[in-house]
Design brief:
Distance between the termini: 15 Å
Structural class: alpha/beta
CATH class of the largest domain: Alpha Beta
Number of helices: 14
Amino acid sequence: MLQLIRRSTANTRREIQQVTGLSRVTVAQRVETLMDARLIAEVAGGGGATGGRRPGHLEFDVERSVLVVAAVDTAHSRTALTDLSGRILETETLDVSIREGPKVVLAALTASMRRLIEVAADGRTVAGAGISVPGPVDPKTRRPSQPPIMPGWDGYPITDHVGDTIPVPIFVENDADAMAFGEQSTNFSTSTSVCLVKVSTGIGSGLVINGSVYHGIDGGAGDIGHIRIAGEDALCQCGSRGCLAAIASGRAIAIRLSDGGTPARSGRDVRRLLQQGDTDALRLTHEAGVRIGEVMATVVSMINPGVLIVSGDLASSALLAGLREGLYPRSLPRATRNLVVCLGALDANAGMIGMARIVTDSLFSAEAINHQFR
């Protein structure tokens, strides 16, 4: 019943009866139990009525507690305090590099998280925490799994480290997965298959199928940045040659810009140049989009998603145009006839919103709630 209310499938007692087939008395008892636990609240109005008093509208109580989340990127990180819907209440940006290692990065994150709790929690309890990282995450252990650009992070117990300071349930996800879930749950909740491509200093992708993140067998799904491109020999940060990330990522473009006399070190620098209208940055980003589109043609033909979202530091009209140029000629018309290709709407907040909603879905799943009331 809580899931029906949370997803706005049924928000009155009558609607719950109609969807579940439960008796009026049973529905009333269970609604009362959920209200006593402050999981749901009843607000005036809402819902239809055939006459007399309008039925109360039942809503998930998103303000009963807060979440603290973080999005770790290659050169910087962001933390946020959110309500249970993923609405951001307060944020901080940290200039800490992933290459400084897990102890340094996580110490900075937990210090920031504690500051946010003190400033914006407003006396509410912290229900859970979530952290996204730019590498594969094993869904069983919640630990990074052989991340190509995260030296020292492989198998690191992130949840244990953060839990020593913030003792709540802690969830860890790949950054593109969290971003994909944020965009899908906010803007494309009716689509059964959404793919997001993140193009920043590196390249990755996330896939949401039937409302859930698809991880693959051990968290490696979506790692398109390390697909090798025929005829390319550029050295990648993972140690291989010819990876897509080595020729089309923000880092690759930054190197080419620097070689041409325009100083740039990362995807953030390329983003700044794109915003300034730098012609070399625009040209190179368009070219990168074409190469990414060539790879995504295979992904689209295999998965047949309804939405393909382009996000990250390099998300721009130049990248989007290049991606379409590389994608459509290499895909069967049937694979793309119903495909929406667009820029992400949540920008830098996508990962944190997605992480918050992943945490909420886990903490308040049907299994978790049934266990609570046994």
